[in-house]
Amino acid sequence: MYTAAVLTVSDRSFRGQRPDEAGPLVCSLLEEAGYSILETGVVPDEQPDIEAALVRLADQTGAALVVTTGGTGFSPRDVTPEATLAVCERLTPGIPEAMRAASLAITPRAMLSRAAAGIRGGTLIINLPGSPRAALENLEAVLPALEHGLKMLLGGPADCTSAFS
């Protein structure tokens, strides 16, 4: 079992003007997959706030996985990818590439996602869209591979050949 934290990035949810729908759905999917949710939170679309939350979740909670929802589009306030890239030490470009590829089978708008993913210390950080449906579709696309990646990230023995046997 791995630990996770879910961070929703939304001005309206932060101000209490709209309920956070994507965050709880992402938590449910992660729990169904065996993850233990350590913390959830909502921050506004402000890069310093997002960066601070990501650093705290990665460095202080012990979460193996931090998933964000929201702030990955083209709006001038959509800065979640920039915040993620600013705090990560290593990038994991295959994760957002796989999410976009899977989403393109559903909608051509998937190519507009600017989601990023990377590693900070022993934590994998992944950006998901803010739409509840899109967040679930994107997470479902990569969830099967995450256990192997987290096992390697956390220094455990990872059999790289098991997927091919």
Write structural notes for this entry.
- The chain contains six helices and six strands; from the N terminus they run βααβαβαβαββα.
- Helices cover 42% and strands 19% of the residues.
- Strands 2-1-3-6-5-4 form a six-stranded mixed beta sheet, sandwiched between helices.
- The chain has helices at residues 11-14, 22-32, 47-60, 80-87, 94-104, 132-153; strands at residues 3-9, 36-43, 65-69, 90-91, 117-120, 123-128.
- It has a single domain, classed as MoaB/Mog-like domain (Molybdenum Cofactor Biosythetic Enzyme, Chain A).
- It is globular, with a radius of gyration of 15 Å.
- With 165 residues, the chain is an alpha/beta fold.
Short overview:
With about 160 residues, the chain is of the alpha/beta class.
Observed structural traits:
165 residues; alpha/beta; Molybdenum Cofactor Biosythetic Enzyme, Chain A; 6-stranded mixed sheet; 6 helices; 6 strands; 42% helix; globular
Proper CATH architecture: 3-Layer(aba) Sandwich
Helices, by number, come to 6
Low-confidence stretches: none
N-end to C-end Cα span: 23 Å
Portion of residues in beta strands equals 15-25%
Question: CATH first level: which class?
Answer: Alpha Beta
Q: Could you say which overall geometry the principal axes of the C-alpha atoms support?
A: globular
Largest sheet: 6 strands, mixed
Structural class: alpha/beta
For CATH, the homologous superfamily is named as: MoaB/Mog-like domain
Spatial order of the strands forming the largest sheet: 2-1-3-6-5-4
